[in-house]
Write a structure and sequence with these properties.
34% helix; 119 residues; single chain; 3-stranded antiparallel β-sheet
Length: 119
């Protein structure tokens, strides 16, 4: 079997409800192979896509009006942590991944997501 042969596909749906001022007031997401594709509500999304042809990153960052600053701090902290893990898995560059994780930890302490004395 060819490793590039598509043997299964999944559709990911993002639905953003905007108010009259074009501000997101409801964000929903779903995947066709998760919960039958049923949409679930969330308060924020951060999507990054790497354009194959132009070799550039396209980003979508949206959050609802009800997203609180403390929730955004937690969202960004968890995203930074996961990006350091993703980077390590993709590149095997342990040194740089650890530096990214250190910054995520610093961010978590500064935003009080994690206690300042936690190592």
């Amino acid at each position: 079997m060819d490793n590039n042969e598509v043997v299964k596909s999944s559709d990911i749906t993002l639905r953003v409800g905007l108010n009259a001022e074009q501000v997101p007031v409801r964000i929903e997401w779903g995947a066709s192979d998760r919960n039958g594709g049923a949409l679930e509500e969330c308060k924020a999304i951060a999507v990054a896509l790497f354009d194959k042809e132009h070799r550039d990153t396209l980003r979508i960052d949206l959050w609802t009006k009800e997203m609180q600053v403390l929730e955004m701090d937690r969202f960004v902290y968890q995203t930074l942590r996961s990006l350091s893990q993703t980077y390590l898995k993709a590149t095997q560059n342990k040194e740089l991944a650890e530096e990214m994780a250190k910054f995520a930890h610093f961010f978590g302490q500064k935003t009080e997501i994690i206690p300042a004395d936690e190592k």
